[in-house]
């Protein structure tokens, strides 16, 4: 199998990122995302690096997966956690080391930038992903996540 290369995303990657995020939302949550909102959200990261950045995994020059990195300041640790988000690997490339390569690249970049750690969300039923993250040395945290989503109109 040809080796993978990892690179930062560019504006030219927006169509793949749009398709992958839409597919991931459907596969994991059965949610249909508004393509116009999603495209503006992806472009918003590329336009303002303070929000984070995307990485793209390629094999033989073909994009086969990617992810988004964002930052969370930790006052307890006096540094940033890097959040891995919007992970997607095309079906034909799954179980071939794409996420493993992306994770290794992220860890190297985060350490070089002085980050204090990596974090990510995973669906509670996605046992395959949970096993992958554990194999990479990530540990499940003892926190529940709560949110108020102002975009849905449910502002209790």
From TrEMBL:
Annotated signal sequence range: none
EC number: 2.3.-.-
Ranges that cross the membrane: none
Enzyme category, top tier: transferase
Pfam families: Acetyltransf_1 (PF00583)
Keyword list, A-Z: Acyltransferase, Transferase
InterPro entries linked: Acyl_CoA_acyltransferase, Bact_Acetyltransf, GNAT_dom
Annotated source species: Rhodanobacter ginsenosidimutans
Name this polypeptide is given: GNAT family N-acetyltransferase
PROSITE patterns: GNAT
N-acetyltransferase domain residues: 4-156
Gene Ontology terms, MF aspect: acyltransferase activity
Gene3D superfamilies documented for this protein: 3.40.630.30
């Amino acid at each position: 199998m040809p080796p993978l290369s990892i690179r930062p995303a560019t504006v030219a990657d927006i169509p793949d990122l749009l398709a992958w995020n839409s597919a991931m939302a459907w596969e994991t949550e059965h949610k249909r995302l508004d393509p116009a909102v999603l495209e503006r959200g992806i472009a918003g990261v590329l336009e303002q690096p303070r929000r984070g950045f995307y990485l793209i995994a390629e094999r033989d020059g073909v994009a086969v997966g990617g992810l988004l990195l964002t930052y969370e300041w930790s006052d307890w640790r006096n540094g940033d956690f890097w959040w891995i988000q919007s992970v997607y690997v095309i079906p034909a490339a799954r179980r071939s080391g794409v996420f493993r390569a992306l994770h290794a690249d992220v860890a190297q970049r985060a350490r070089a930038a002085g980050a204090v750690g990596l974090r990510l969300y995973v669906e509670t039923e996605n046992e395959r992903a949970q096993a992958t993250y554990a194999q990479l040395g990530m540990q499940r945290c003892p926190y529940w996540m709560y949110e108020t989503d102002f975009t849905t109109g449910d502002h209790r």
